[in-house]
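Example complex used in Figure S2.
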Amino acid sequence: MRSFQDVPIRQKLALSIVVTTAAALALSGIGILAADSLLFRQYLRSDLSSLASIIGDNSTAAIEFDDPRSAAQTLNALRVRTHVRSACIYRADGSVLARYSHAFENGSCPPAAARDQIQSTAAGLVVSHPIVLENRRIGTLVLLYGLGEVGARARLFGAAIILVLLISSVIAFLLSSKLRSMIVQPILGLAHAVAAVSKTRDYGIRAQKLSGDELGVLVDAFNEMLGIIQLRDSDLRKALVDREEALIEAENSRKSLETTLASIGDAVIATDLEGFVVFANPVALALLGRPEAEVTRRHLDEVFRIVNEFTRSTVESPVRKVLREGAIVGLANHTLLIAGDGREIPIDDSAAPIRDAGGSIRGTVLVFRDVTARRRAEETTRRLASIVESSEDAIIGHDLQGFFTSWNKGAERIFGYSAEEIAGQPASVIAAPGSADEIPEMLRRIANGERIEPYHARRRTRRGEIREVSISISPMYDELGRIAGASKIARDITEQVRAAERLALANAALQRANEKLARSNEDLERFAFIASHDLQEPLRMITTYSQLIVKTYAGEKDDRARKYVEYISAGARRMQELLADLFAYAEIGASAEESGSAVDLNDILRTVTQNLRAAIDETATTIAADPLPVVSAHAGHFVALFQNLIGNAIKYRGQQPPSIRISVAERNGQIRFSVADNGIGIEAEYLERIFVPFKRLHGNRIPGTGIGLAICQRVVERYGGRIWAESEFGNGATFIFTLPSVARLREDR
Amino acid sequence: METKANIVVIDDNPGDIELLRMALEGAGVDCTLSVLDNGRDAMEFVQRLGPFAGIPAPDLVILDLNLPSNDGVEILQAMRSGDAFPDVAVVVLSSSSSPREKSRAASLRVKRFIMKPPDLDAFMKIGVTLGELLAEKRSEEASAGG
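Predicted assembly (895 residues):
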């Protein structure tokens, strides 16, 4: 149970008001009750005395006449006074004359008091009043007055007081809530304000003033205190922020300086007044070829050794000069820095004094840079310029408006204009008629940064000749990377173009001739095929029926008829042979599209000697052959080839038995076959003509159709080779033919 | 009992037909030789059309491959795929030596493929060959007939 101290003010106030009100009312009630009781008793005494006097006076006669009845009647008048419980009239001797008692009373007389007085007893007030007549006492009246009235009155009063007390308490309690809020609200407001401040640390919060009383004063004082705290707080914060900003700014400026010095492309060294190094940036350290520890706090002369490039004599440190003269100094040209690692670096430098705010010198700063790259660039530029000058090609520069800006010797040679003549002229002066239109388009593309790959164009020389040139164009950039013009390389290709044109013409003519030849070849083949085939039929009829005539009329007619028919028969046979050979010849071409199979030429040779067995045996021919290769071909073609060549060697034999030598050699991608004999040979003038179909040198003296060698040639050419004959008339002949090595399938056994 | 063989020759060359007749006679072949000298008639004959309706099946057909209008292979094809006499024995007697035609004819069940020879004696020997063929065919039929 919490103590009263911890009870909220609201409840304390309510309790105080109620208790105070109740106490005040209770005290007043008790006072009133006491006063009333006292006053009522006094009034009762006087009233009872008066009553007793009246009754006594009225009963004098009865006593005098000792008339108890009349006395009783007198006493009966007391009936209206309900609180008189009983009454007695005593005679002077003390006997009872009359008595009266209120209803339900026992009728006994109250004992007469010893003295005439009003006496309080337990039964009530006992009034003893003397009855006097003519100054003589004749009796006594005694009354007993019940005190019930007093109690009832007191109870009535008490009840009224308690009722008032309750009502007052309720009213006081109700009133107290209003009072409460008047007092408690400002306090609660203050309490909330304090809580908010301590929670948020916002010293801008203010408590609301609701009244002008002491609470109002308290709120004012609290708010004032908050105001002061707020002011202090913001001052403090501002001071902190200022300090922080100042620190950051200082750090930034230091960093920026450091970064600037570190990232500056030039080497920077700072020295003090004595020339001792206090700072060197990374570029400087790199050029000096020493770590930082070997540079800072050393004397500059120790780490920065410079000599003249040509004389090799030591050059005075610029720092020394600055300190002496107090002005900015630059290095002479051709200064070499001797680095810590012995490298010699051409440099370009300057030194300046460092002055403080007062203008007095505090040290020096030395700035220098490696000029190797610049030297090299200058060298490269010189070399490039000489390359450009000595180029066979025209190397030309012009600006974006198309005016020439540079012109090398090559350009002079090709176009005939000198550099002086062409400077400032528009590009159109060397445009060939009809080609000036392309210039604006080229300029537009170059201005867009496009590179124009070599293209063929025509240009006019100073003398008005048209030159064919191959031109490539690239944009030229200035030092800011903007396109400033075009660089053009023109190569004179006039001769190549003319040659190409001539070649194209020749090729076209050749192709036309080839097509024509192919057409006529095809026509010829078709004709030969059809002719040889279809002519066989009528020939067969002629032959057969000639034979029939001879047979039917044998020995019957005269001999001439038989002879004539035999001529017909012989002619038809010969015609058949010719047609058969022609057919064979045509067929070699007809099967040109079909690919062959592996053909072993040794087998072919065996077949041929078999076919010619009769002639070989008859003439005692000897054949000697190298091992022959296997080729991709049609077997029939090579049978025809070898059979014709060997057959010819036997046919055109000399006096000795024929001796045939077949040899093979391979070189330069060709397989070379030769078939040599010891026959009659061929006269030089006929060496080529012998390959023409039906061309015979010997008439009918030696049988043959005249197409054998034509077939040989056709077979060899069909396989991509060549055939020719070599001979000394009378000393045998050698037929040579080649085949491309690709025809060979494998080396033979 | 021997009856005359019924041979039909399809050829447009009267000289060859004469030679064939001689060859058959020379070989002693007893036969009637009917001649069809153009492709169109031959086509109708092998399908028993037009004037050839109801004609009896021949014992042997001798066919030249080089004919005007319909060529010999076409005629042979029509005969083999028709219902007149699809199984009659055929001998090709032709001047054509094309291997392609030869293989086509072979696929159509030809008994012999004979090149017309450019020599009288050789031609006469064809009669003997045909006689043997007919005799062979007869003996086959006799053994088949029981």
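The first strand of chain A starts at residue 84 and ends at 91. The mean pLDDT of chain A is 83.
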